[in-house]
Amino acid sequence: MTKLDVQSVAVIGAGPGGLSALYELSHTNADGTTTVGEAKSSNPQFKKIVAFEQKSMWGGIWAPEGFKTGSMFPPQEVLDTNRYNMPDVVSPSKEIPEGLEKTSRDSPLHIKKSKAETELDWNKSGIFPELFTNVPSRYMRFSYIRHEEKYSDKNRVIYPFLTLNEFSHRLYSFVEREKLDEYIRVNSSVEKVIKSDSGKWIVVVRETSDDSSTVKWYQEEFDAIISAVGHYSIPHIPCIPGLNEYNKLHGETLIHAKSFRNREVFRNKKVIVIGSNLSSTNLLQYIVPLASSAYISKRSENKNFPWIDRAVEHGGIICKPSIEKFIPETKEVLFTDGSVEKDLDLIIFATGYHFHFPFLEQNFKVIRPSNTSRVKGLYYNTFSINDPTLAAIGVTTSPITFHTLEAAAAAIAGVWSNAKALPSKEDQIAWEKRRVEETGENVAFHYYKPKEIKEKFLDEIQEYFPLNRHNPFEEDSKYLHEIDDGLVTIEQLFYNLKDSQLSVEETSTF
């Protein structure tokens, strides 16, 4: 394969995936070796690295930004389309102004901020102050960040997990130590990425600030692009008959789970959670002790986490099937079994998120957009099959999240520094076809169970790492029992919090 000439890289997103890219690229030498675990490269392959982050601070979904809420639910005009289950409808692309060809960051185009830009805001994080992780501490870190053994103490109430503060401290210390914030431009949303005739990528950027009435637009050229936007920003709202009319009369009762911040909103309320997943149980453990009544609407059994089905039938929660329709005139909800609930005070959609790449819609194709979609055309969920200078980090899903982010970043660094070469386009397509045959055309394509992640993903993608790069899972694969321990803990914590055997403070303050 022809050698690549990549010296400038744009990273879209500065959450954990983007941070892994910044670290890896800044430690890659021009000869294809790496200095990971040591000082940054003194002879770097990548001379210009820029991360564009749309939020006011880096960290992705782990950036609390003062726990601002952002949009609570799609606005009425979106619901009235009856296509609010589509990502391009619930989060439409911004109109790109003309005349950007001669702009730059230092000489941008100033446009008056529109009302829509202040009203529809999905980029706020979905975390809340009492949150604790649902992935063990050991796997909430990159391999080059030391694991503190105190978090493996089985006497900890939330072993093997971390509180939000503990994890935030770990992530912030890493960024500060490595000075990664020097590469990041906050309040900078990438609206479009276009391949020019010269072979360069043109990145169109919209830069905002809360205290300004204008938006700055400019464009900038790069040799290669990494999308690291994750998929926990754009909420998936299933289309249910009557929802748009229900919102007109009772809109104050409807929210998506990512908008939850304060458990006091549940006090003495009649609350239903739609969806049967980790987000649902995470909410219900706080709802039950405070609400006058708590419901869950679940469509089917949870095959990935069977304990959830046991948990929601444990007591204190009324289980309902899927919602047939909303009846706004009488403030009722009709379920598929014919039962009806009236005067619900809060209806929480814990219905997942979309993969959404509006800035690269011609390159990253999402198959049948929903909360169970897959992204087409990515070799090992990382490299664009159609263009080797385009890549993604964060599409692979697994409880071993940080190690998969690190591995994708390492593979990108290895290929783009010409230490390694990708196989032919035909071979990449053949890999994708085999994976589809194994998993189907859905999000399972991107998912790896903990016990298969090393053999089926990490060991295979290691083939593309820089010359002396270690496998990030080599040491930590010895501790997979902590994943099993975590499943026991998270179920027990659910019961203890739900039944007020534990206080919220005991699980969130150390």
Automatic annotation (TrEMBL):
Keywords: FAD, Flavoprotein, NADP, Oxidoreductase
Domain of life: Eukaryota
A Pfam cross-reference name: FMO-like
UniProt GO MF annotations: flavin adenine dinucleotide binding; N,N-dimethylaniline monooxygenase activity; NADP binding
Secreted is among the record's keywords: no
Matching InterPro entries: FAD/NAD-bd_sf, Flavin_mOase-like, FMO-like
Named cofactor requirement(s): FAD
Protein family: Belongs to the FMO family.
Protein name in the entry: Piso0_000580 protein
Organism of derivation: Pichia sorbitophila (strain ATCC MYA-4447 / BCRC 22081 / CBS 7064 / NBRC 10061 / NRRL Y-12695)
Organism placement in taxonomy: Eukaryota, Fungi, Dikarya, Ascomycota, Saccharomycotina
Gene that this sequence comes from: Piso0_000580
